[in-house]
Each structure stands twice: as structure tokens, then as C-alpha cells.
Amino acid sequence: MLKAIAIDDESMALEIIKSHASKVPFIDLEAVFSNAIEGLEYQRNHDVDLVFLDINMPDISGIDLASLLPKETMVIFTTAYSDFAVKGFELDAMDYLLKPFPLSRFMKACQKAQEWKELQPNDASDHLFIKTSEGQIRVNFSELLFCEAAGNYVTFQLDNEKLISRMTFGELEQLLPSSFVRTHRSFIVNKNRLDKIERHQVHLGKHIVPVSVTFSGSIL
Predict the structure, then answer these.
(1) At CA 183, angle to CA 121 and CA 126, rounded to 5?
(2) Residue where a domain stops, chosen among 68, 96, 119
(3) Model pTM?
(4) Same domain, yes or no, for 106 and 147?
(5) What is the pLDDT of residue 86?
(6) How many CB atoms lie within 10 A of CB 53?
């Protein structure tokens, strides 16, 4: 069950979200807010998995509010303005609903959030599941050497194979344990698999990964 809230300055929009959410069995819409600040305060004091968030609001924009939420809080933007879509996805939003959205589209967005939540490892987890063109594939952390970003895709380099999944680095960092660190804006490495550390690069088996000045301190 996903614990959710909705923040929108339009009462009609909140009523639609309440109606749609009541029809999704895994969504528990705990509260709705027409005041963005009140919604943010509620989120800070309660365990909230998902926020349905309008973008164009008088006190603070949804874009700015989303940047104040914890990284693990999922956001589904709801707005009447399509030109905000790119900025929304830059913030790793789970989805972007353009008003007026039907129940079917709302459910699709909620399903995406539910699937993401299920893929999140707990503290004791030794693996994650990633979505590829061949389905959900288990990746053991002990076998993962490094990850490389390319746009909205990530390549997972394992001992004996490569896997490619559509996700951002921001999403990936929420799934990996602390033994994985960035060495470069496009690379995350498994510190437990490092064979050699040099000034501008590290070695993991036969692979060489660059180290930038910005992230050089993270591998020591």
C-alpha cells in the first residue's frame, strides 16, 4: 500500500484525485491540501510514499516544492500546462499527468509508482531488480562492477554481462547501498570490487573507469 497525499490549489482537481485514488486498491490517499505549505509540513511529519503535486500554485510552484521533498518520496505531477513536462522529469518525477486526466491514465501512473516501490531494496538487501527489454532481471550487488549513465539509460556492468535499463542516475542512487559511489558524473562503481585506484581512473577487473576531480574524494 502506498501512502499518498495530494497538493493542488484547485478544489475540483483535488476531488478528481480523491475519486480516482479511491478506485486504486494499493493507494491510500491520507490527506489533500489546497495550501502547498501545509502539504509540505504534513509530509515532513508523516510517512508519505507518494505526492500528487500540482505545478502552478500561488505560494510556491510544484517544481520548487518537489525539490524540498526527500529523495525517496515519489512525485506525480498534475498540471494543465504541458510545457512543464521536461522540467518535471528533470526532477526524476515518477510521472506527469496532464489535466484533465482519465482514471485509466491515473491508474497507469500509480502502477508505475507501485512497481518502483517494490523494486526498492531494504537495508538488508543484497540485490535489486532492474527492468530491461527482457523483463525484470535480478542483479546481485556482489556481481555488479559499475554503472554507466547515457541519457535516460543506465548500463549495468556485471562480471560476465551487460544489462541496460531505462532510468536516471538519480533513481539508481536511491537503489544502491553505500558501497557504491560516484567517480564521475556518468559512472558509479562498486568500492568492494576495486582492484586499483589511480589519480584519474580506477580498475575493476579488465575495466577502467574514469575519476573526475569532483568525485575523487568519494573512492578513498
Answers:
(1) 20
(2) 119
(3) 0.58
(4) no
(5) 47
(6) 25
